[in-house]
Amino acid sequence: MSHLRSALLLFVVACGWTLPSPFPAALGADTAWAKAKPKPKKPAKGKKPAPAPGPQAEPTPAPAPPPVAPPPAAPAVVEEVAARPSAKVDTSNPTEELLAKARQLYASLEYEAVIPVAEAVLARDDTTIDMRLDAYLLHGSALAIVGDAIEAEKPFRFLLRGRPDYDMPAETPPKILAVFRKVQVEERAIVDQMRELERARVLRELKLDAEMETESTGGVPLAFEYKLRDPGRAVQAMSVHYRRSASEPFSALALQVDDTGLWRAELPGEYTENDDGLVLQYYVSTTDAAGAPLLSVGDPTNPLGIQIAPGTVADARPFYKSPWLWIASGVVLVGAGVGGYFLYENAVALPKTDGLVKLRE
């Protein structure tokens, strides 16, 4: 059936026949649109028709603004002193005059000019130590002012190593003082560290030997003797600190060294005499030339002790040291001498006669 319809449709189209539209509403709408479409007006007689407007030209774009040039780069900060423009320095002048010139320039606030003059002074072979240290001060200060803080540290270090106790005046500019304080703190830390390392090395070599008695008697002198091993001769003083009770402060007695290296001191018997007995507390300390502590035996919080029995100086004095013994002995000797003299005189005296001595009867 479908084949028959297709064949019939082809036949109608071939004959040019028109079939009723199955969509009248749609065709009517198309026809209405076609009728409503305005027709082009015919030109009036004697007038030429206006040319049809051509396609509108696109607006010309505004020219692009020229590219903005980048800002010029800041000049690089050169930290090398050699790259800084330096003034000409008359090196034929004596060193004293160059140093005076540097001081004059610094006082005139011509810091850039100070740098080459100070460097010329430091390069001289005849510059004394004091002149060199003064030049380091001027050199570092000028470098700090012109903004070269890193380079300013170097001369300040040399200055402090030559004058460890040097300090800047109170009116020093902040830029100089900031660099100097930094170097000063670092140098002091280095000195303290080196001192501690040296002290540790010395302590390893020191040895203090003693054979102190732990008991004694009141009224008897108390001797302290120590043998010190000190290869580097670091110990310059040795003291014994002592007291009779824990409630008393320590007293100090300096020990003296003899030719054999024995350090010795003695407490008199008057200090040790007592009626009830006591414990004498003590400790021994050694110091170097600067007074810094070195090796010690005991300490204030942990002292050593010697038990002292009751006794007095009179009881402890040997009989041969008694003054009465020698007085009595002296009296006896004097009496014996006088008696002997008279006996001798009587023995050698001639008999009394009238001047004639009969040898024989």
Structure description:
With 361 residues, this protein is an alpha+beta fold. The protein contains ten helices and ten strands. The chain has helices at 2-15, 24-36, 95-107, 111-123, 129-145, 149-162, 174-205, 269-272, 313-316, 323-348; strands at 207-209, 215-217, 222-229, 237-243, 251-254, 256-257, 262-267, 278-287, 293-297, 304-309. The strands form two sheets. Strands 2, 4, 5, 8, 9 and 10 form a six-stranded mixed sheet that branches. Strands 1-3-7-6 form a four-stranded antiparallel sheet. A hairpin with a 4-residue loop joins strand 6 (256-257) and strand 7 (262-267). Helix 4 (111-123) runs antiparallel to helix 5. The longest helix is centred in the middle third of the chain and has 32 residues, at 174-205.
Descriptive key words:
361 residues; alpha+beta; six-stranded mixed β-sheet; four-stranded antiparallel β-sheet; 10 helices; elongated
TL;DR?
With 361 residues, the protein is of the alpha+beta class. The protein has helices spanning 2-15, 24-36, 95-107, 111-123, 129-145, 149-162, 174-205, 269-272, 313-316, 323-348, and strands at residues 207-209, 215-217, 222-229, 237-243, 251-254, 256-257, 262-267, 278-287, 293-297, 304-309.
